[in-house]
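re: the backbone from monday

yeah here it is again, tokenized this time
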């Protein structure tokens, strides 16, 4: 059961000299994801049994870890590995299905963009309200107001309603409030990636200050350099399971090894190449590469715009499928992977029998080589694919500079006297 208590402390395993600030013991958390969802009362009346079938997503599966007081602890893993879910369980946002959680100390979560904000109020009002929600008194919130706004750099937007803020501005405001609470334990999710470079630099400076102050920080990120720079230890999760806990450099190495050759979605354990077509809710019929004129091609010169396409047939109604594409080079290394969840958003509702063509365009900065395309489709919230066609199409990129890299990124040099 989820518990936040001040129990007699004991040493946290793997962090000598520190007391356990957070204990996670055999925690399980799963979600039921219905295949069909109701949007109106009329739908519920007309189709009372439509949503009875569902998939079970085991987001966190028997995870145990102890995090010492004053430890900067990294939590890494690919998309869908359960990192954010575990953080939300620790924060008490999600209840757990089984196991035990113990948190010793005042906790400040910075987990999800905009949580706790009222988008119809101004930044001025939201700062005070959010600071009080996180545990400050009204007097403390007012005393620290200027510091919060200085750190966020939002003086010119104080009287603007938050619904008119960009995602980067919301991140700056939320993080600025969270660090002023001065909690013993901070939970920080990867939403910092939304901030601009200058703000990220300020955040990293703040991390150094918090480390020196002895705060306990749980840090979810995909940035392995940040893990190695800040963390005392780190843990690697994969599909809700704990892979390893250890020294940041070793965990970062295992994370990178896990990503070599991986597709953006993974084949589900019960899906095999011999499955009957009718057993799949959606089927990828074909995939190909196109040139700028829309012609199918088997080769392209370096620098020429490139488009990958997949033709899809829906065998049953499907809501907001996540379309994915993975490009791998001749030695099987993943050089590019993306999904509509990252760059497009909700994709819509598709009835049974509908044919759809999904197209992805990208700048062709690939080094000369042969590349294969693995298209995939998943349900929202899932890392496992409901349909995946391994290396279904291929293209040869020719020309361009020879540097030994897998891609030629746009760049410049600057040479000046020291």
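seq for it, each position gets an aa:
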């Amino acid at each position: 059961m989820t518990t936040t208590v001040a129990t007699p402390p004991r040493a946290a395993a793997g962090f000598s000299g520190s007391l356990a600030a957070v204990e996670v013991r055999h925690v399980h958390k799963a979600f039921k994801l219905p295949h069909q969802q109701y949007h109106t009362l009329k739908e519920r009346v007309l189709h009372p049994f439509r949503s009875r079938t569902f998939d079970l997503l085991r987001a966190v599966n028997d995870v145990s870890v102890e995090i010492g007081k004053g430890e900067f602890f990294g939590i890494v893993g690919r998309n869908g590995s359960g990192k954010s879910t575990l953080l939300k369980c620790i924060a008490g946002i999600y209840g757990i299905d089984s196991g035990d959680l113990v948190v010793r100390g005042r906790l400040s979560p910075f987990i999800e963009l905009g949580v706790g904000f009222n988008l119809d109020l101004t930044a001025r009002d939201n700062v005070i309200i959010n600071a009080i929600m996180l545990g400050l008194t009204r007097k403390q919130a007012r005393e620290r107001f200027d510091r919060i706004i200085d750190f966020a750099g939002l003086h010119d937007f104080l009287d603007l309603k938050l619904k008119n803020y960009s995602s980067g501005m919301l991140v700056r405001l939320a993080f600025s409030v969270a660090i002023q609470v001065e909690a013993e334990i901070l939970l920080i999710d990867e939403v910092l990636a939304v901030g601009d470079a200058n703000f990220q630099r300020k955040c990293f400076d703040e991390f150094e200050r918090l480390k020196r102050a002895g705060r306990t920080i749980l840090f979810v990120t995909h940035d392995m350099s940040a893990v190695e720079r800040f963390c005392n230890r780190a843990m690697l999760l994969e599909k809700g399971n704990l892979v390893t806990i250890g020294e940041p450099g070793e965990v970062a190495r295992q994370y990178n090894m896990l990503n070599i050759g991986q597709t953006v979605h993974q084949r589900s354990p019960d899906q095999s190449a011999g499955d009957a077509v009718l057993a799949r809710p959606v089927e990828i019929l074909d995939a190909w590469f196109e040139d700028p004129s829309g012609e199918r091609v088997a080769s392209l010169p370096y620098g020429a715009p490139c488009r990958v396409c997949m033709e899809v047939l829906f065998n049953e109604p499907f809501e907001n499928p996540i379309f994915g594409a993975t490009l791998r080079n001749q030695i099987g290394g993943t050089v590019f992977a993306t999904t509509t969840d990252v760059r497009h958003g909700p994709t819509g509702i598709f009835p049974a029998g509908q044919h759809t063509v999904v197209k992805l365009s990208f700048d062709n900065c690939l080094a000369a080589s042969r590349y294969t395309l693995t298209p995939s489709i998943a349900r929202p919230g899932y890392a496992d694919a409901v349909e995946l066609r391994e290396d279904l199409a291929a293209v040869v990129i020719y020309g361009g500079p020879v540097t030994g890299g897998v891609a030629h990124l746009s760049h410049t040099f600057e040479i000046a006297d020291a």
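The radius of gyration is 24 Å. The mean pLDDT is 84.
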